[in-house]
Amino acid sequence: MTAPIPGRSDAPVVHMRDVSIDFPGVKALDGVDFRLLPGEIHALMGENGAGKSTLIKALTGVYDIDSGSITIDGVEQRFSGPRQAQDAGISTVYQEVNLCANLTVAENILLGREPRRRGRIDYRAMNRRAAELLGELDLTIDPSSTLGAHPIALQQLVAIARATAVSARVLILDEPTSSLDADEVAELFRVMRRLRDGGTAILFVSHFLDQVYEISDRMTVLRNGRLVGEYPTAALDRVELVAAMLGHELDLLEEIADTVATSSSRADETVLSVRDLARPPAVHPMDLDVHRGEVVGLAGLLGSGRTELARLLFGADRAASGRMMVNGKTTTLRSPRAAIAKGFAFSSEDRKSEGIVGDLTIRDNLVLALQARRGFARPLSKRAKDDLVGRYMEALDIRPRDPWALVKNLSGGNQQKVLLARWLITEPQLFILDEPTRGIDVGAKAQIQKLVAELATDGMGVVFISAELDEVARISDRIAVLRDGHCIAQVGTECTVRELTALIAGGSDR
Amino acid sequence: MMKRFAASPLLWPALALVALLAVNVVLTPSFLSIRVQDGHLFGSLVDILRNGAPTMLVALGMTLVIASRGIDLSVGAVVAVSGALACAHIASATDPASAGTVITAMGIALGVAVGLGLWNGMLVSVFGVQPIIATLVLMTAGRGIALLITDGQIVTITSAPFKVLGAGYAFGLPVAILVSLSVFAVVGLLTRRTALGMLLESVGINPEASRLAGVRHRSIVFAVYVFCALCAGVAGLMIASNISAADANNAGLWIEMDAILAVVIGGTSLLGGRFSLTGTILGALIIQTLTTTVYTAGITPETTLVFKALVVIAVCLLQAPKFRAVVSRGRSRKIPRRPNPAPGSASSGAQPRPIAEPTSGPAPSASVMVTK
What we know:
The structure holds two protein chains of two kinds. By secondary structure, chain A is α/β, with parallel strands linked by helices.
């Protein structure tokens, strides 16, 4: 943030004026102005549904705008496809790396622009060119290695190198940090600063406020498809930013705090108790108890074993060793089915590929787990379905309120609510939630946090995982801190976020 | 459920079928006429139903396999094996015309068909072999097995009870079509009246999510391959029964292609998931009508396949959203219609570009959401 910002006074490289995009029934963008200056890192802020993705898609030529204008370098553009946006110098790196994992790094970087000799690809020149491009970003990756062999973080940097290979004037990074750990984020930021200092305009979308404050020079805040304002980062503190993003919904957050504070009415019955549960190398022998009415948080970095432990608890993976007791009885969980039969529920961190069934309706998604438990031969009656679906869509405020809508068309937050409802319909006694609030808007996030607190108050045992420490700290009654596959501490509510951070970071080599 | 299916997916196949029938009426004015003879119905339409029955049956099984994200290339081979086994047994029996012999023959044939389905199901669901490869094995080997059973000969038989399935009549209609339609009805009830259809679609759309939701994904995948092979087995019996012979080389040749086409024409995506049995039946009828049309139009049989390809392309294009968008272009482009609103006029809090005033108070260090 302290780095000099060259070219600040230049004319905007991207200038959107009064841009509107209509979808059936909703104005996704409503008269939004947006300016991106050369040589700046500009954060685009807002909840899901605020219009961030729509704005990006308008800028990258995916959506056609209904009114207003987009000017790139002073020339008004009307994109009819992503290709034209690319030709105008706009490159995008999406949340999910969309490269070809089975090709080499160099092939990925220069895909479609391979250097040729006599009609054939000149691999030597290609590797050399790729190495140059990587070198410009100070990255040491072997260009001839297979992309899939590298961790996601490096693949993302390769994606950025690919974007710069077309000498992009504008680089759009959509949630690039959501699956990176701290070191990787630092590396990404180093590359971003380097590109900025070279004059590239970077549009950065992230829901991690820390990162936004660390890296961005200016920010634009959207809410409900409208522009709230454009601010220098240094001039807007966090409270003001969240207030700008949320409007009135801050009250809801206060409410959770109250709910959590009063939810100490827990019985001393143990729902789940594991001893020496292990599945090396991700999970080394661990003990964990979850009581009725208790929220147990799992805190740790990505790769600390938190997700892997959750999967073991649900039988999604089989434990290599260890004992498990459910309601005081020794059990082995061989499959998710077995866990569900015990009254367990599990919401995976990977909502898209392990959660929702996108091409089915909200209705079918909601009853899926209950129906699977009943078996195909005992279908829920239409009436029972209508009743359950109506009740839970209402209770969790799932939108649109149309049970026949396909789940793939819902926003992330609503998809998550569908998943939660799917499990709540089975009336579980233990709910394992792996990052239920990742990548969803702040409003839905607050609703889900509130729901978790209420479920615990009603007597459910909850295992709660989140990458956001303050969220874990706020919701949990007890927190198990994981590091490198070991459970290094279990702390109660008296532990502050600062202390937690220290525990997680630990005295290790990080 | 019905109103969602009825709307557009079945429209194009239905229209294509009607169009094909219309072409036939033009070519042969008597095409639609059905006469009653000896209490049986006769006519081109009845022929289409009877000759299309095996494809229809195989396509029904194929629909479920495709819905599970799979494909079964071995159905043609299973057809050949089933027919060969039944005919070989009847030919070697002392009393080929007895009902007992025929029932035993059919039992053996269908038992082996189920066995072959178990083999496919095991490869795909237990060992995780890609369906196209797993069933390719049996597609190649199966016809060889059928040839071994018949010693490479065409086994002809004379057995009145056996002839009933493929060439007989009941209630005035060919038995074959009654069998196929019964299977259609049973599968329809089984998938839509129970939760089987929804669970199968769920597995086809997202196997891992289904597993984590507690769906018996393996059993379901296993079951659809067994069912598909069973359908192919019955179809094999129909074909052998119709000609009173087992031709291991030609029985069910390319029927897997016809079945897959029928499924696709019927609107079920090869990517798995949502399926339509009614669509499949329409698809199978389209294919059979097409074959009949080509013959009645006096076009040489060599060009039949080309005509099939043309119709299939037409129907599939009509179903493709992109193609439809291209066809109906002209009204797609939206016209900007809003006048420029006065900047900063709205009461909604959307103010163009205010610059925040620097605040004096210290910002919370960990996060704004910390409430402890």
